[in-house]
From TrEMBL:
This is Methionine aminopeptidase. A divalent metal cation 1 binds at residues 94, 105, 232. Pfam families: Peptidase_M24. It comes from Pandoraea captiosa. Its cofactor is Co(2+); Zn(2+); Mn(2+); Fe(2+). Binds 2 divalent metal cations per subunit. Has a high-affinity and a low affinity metal-binding site. The true nature of the physiological cofactor is under debate. The enzyme is active with cobalt, zinc, manganese or divalent iron ions. Most likely, methionine aminopeptidases function as mononuclear Fe(2+)-metalloproteases under physiological conditions, and the catalytically relevant metal-binding site has been assigned to the histidine-containing high-affinity site.
Length: 255
């Protein structure tokens, strides 16, 4: 379950390449773009500019380089030519990248054009909740500490945390042990050790936490139709704390 230093170095290389994909997206005007157009741009950038592989392509029979989850879509949204982004939307892009046999996984929720204050607040609190979880990571802490920190922040701000989907170990395979729940009790669950690598990726809902999967078998939506946001980083447990392997250019931890 733990990774050797040379493996973490390769995961960090994949992580920084993936961070550059999000940096590329940050400079794009998403208004009027279909989620399939975004997928195709990301696919081409990973393959042609970074000489890497979109790791989700072909995984579990999935055909695309990313998941695109707008507004009330919680996760696993499938890119579409008819799903055109409009000013006022929020949309999560979840992207995986493999280089030299090692996979990094990250996601970010984007504000498209002029977004309402309630939607902006949900996105901000979700980002903060992810970081609360990251900041709980250190040797000797538990996965319960991580999940508790995330859910406490979300609930204090009036939101709910989706429980059906979780973070996961990652390395040569996209999904490895352990499962990383985004809720939990302090001092319970797996004890963290130096060398563990996993994702932290809370999905936070504006309304109830209940979700359902649409008929395509992939797309997960909120049952009440309210908004959902998500952020994700791949992290490694270090001797003294945590290293964020997918940290993006200019990204700083919120206080």
């Amino acid at each position: 379950m733990t990774k050797r230093p040379e493996e973490i170095a390769l995961l960090a290389e994949s992580g920084q390449l993936l961070a550059s994909v999000f940096d590329h997206l940050d400079h794009m005007n998403l208004i009027g773009m279909s989620t399939m157009q975004v997928n195709d741009l990301v696919d081409g950038f990973i393959v042609n500019e970074l000489n890497a592989r979109p790791a989700s392509k072909g995984q579990y029979g999935y055909a695309y380089a990313l998941n695109a989850s707008p507004n009330h879509v919680v996760c696993h949204g499938v890119p579409s030519t008819t799903d055109v982004l409009q000013s006022g939307d929020i949309v999560n892009f979840d992207i995986t990248l493999e280089k030299s046999g090692y996979i990094a996984d990250s996601s970010k929720t984007y504000l498209v054009g002029e977004v309402s204050q309630p939607a902006q607040r949900l996105v901000q609190v979700t980002y903060e909740a992810m970081w609360k979880g990251i900041q709980a990571v250190r040797p000797g802490a538990t996965l319960g500490d991580v999940g508790h920190a995330i859910e406490r922040h979300a609930r204090r701000n009036g939101y709910s945390v989706v429980r059906e989907y979780c973070g996961h170990g990652i390395g040569r395979e996209m999904h490895e042990e352990p499962q990383v729940l985004h809720w939990g009790k302090p001092r319970t669950g797996l004890v963290l050790r130096e060398g563990m690598v996993f994702t932290i990726e809370p999905m936070v809902n504006q309304g109830r936490r209940a979700v359902e999967t649409e008929e395509d078998g992939w797309t997960v939506v909120t049952c009440d139709g309210q908004l959902s946001a998500q952020f994700e980083h791949t992290v490694a447990v270090t001797a003294s704390g945590v290293r964020v392997l997918t940290l993006r250019p200019g990204e700083k931890r919120p206080h």
